[in-house]
Amino acid sequence: MSEKFHCATKMSHILQAWPLVLKISRLEVTRKVTDEKDREGREKFFSSFSGELERQEGAFGKKRNKNNLSNTSYLKGHRSNISYLKPKEEEEEENNEKEEGEEGDEVEEEEEDDEEQKENDDEEEEKRSRRKMMRRRRKRIRSRRKMMRRRRRRKLMRRSRRKMVMRRRRRKLMRRSRRKMMRRRKLMRRSRRKMIMMRRRRRRRRRSMRKGRSRRKMMIMMRRSRRKMMMMMRRSRRRRSMRSRRKMMMRRRRRRFIDGIVFGVHGNHLNSRTKPNYLLYHHA
After folding, report:
1. DSSP string over 15-43
2. Residues 136, 137, 138, 139: is their CA dihedral positive or negative?
3. DSSP secondary structure letter of residue 69
4. Each residue of 193-246: pLDDT tens digit?
């Protein structure tokens, strides 16, 4: 039991330490790789210069001739390769050629950039012009719609006004015609009543005469009835207000006027200012 437990504890320790182990192993691997890369780089770097260095060592490593101090034949083969042994004119020419090539490339690149810029500008201008056209079109359409709406509204307003005016006129005419009809009916009723009253009076007189009453007695009776009527009127006048009196006066005037219309005393000249008043009411 104890051995098993011991093994378990060992395993747990290993598992706990496992990330650290992995980390260390990774570092070692990366170090190996970097060392190899560095070595390869170094070899390449030195190999590129090795030939030149050997030549230089060969050139300068030889002992000079004591007899011929100006002997430079050993440099003849290597002058084109070694930069610091070239004359300044050749170096300048080469530099100029390089610069010209670079300038030419730059000019070409600039021209291409300019062309692209021009194309982009043209496209942008076209887009702007299209947008402008669309805006103007929308504006026109809106303005047209506005105008159409206004026209419709005005039309409707005119129609409604006309309708209102026509209705008012009709109502006025209807009122007038109704009033006329009512007046005529009233007059007809009044005239009928008068006729009926007159007939009744005649009958009464005849009856009284038949019964043997004298005319004198009849006259006395009529006087009494008239007195009674007058007394009643006076009392009613006392009680009535000014307003009611005015109403009564207006009714009387109207009656006279209507009588004039019906019985054709003053024709079509109703309330005329051209004809004098005595012609209006002379029949009453």
Report:
1. HHHHHHHHHHHHHHHHHHHHHHHHHHHHH
2. positive
3. T
4. 888 888 888 887 766 555 555 667 777 778 878 888 887 777 665 666 777 778
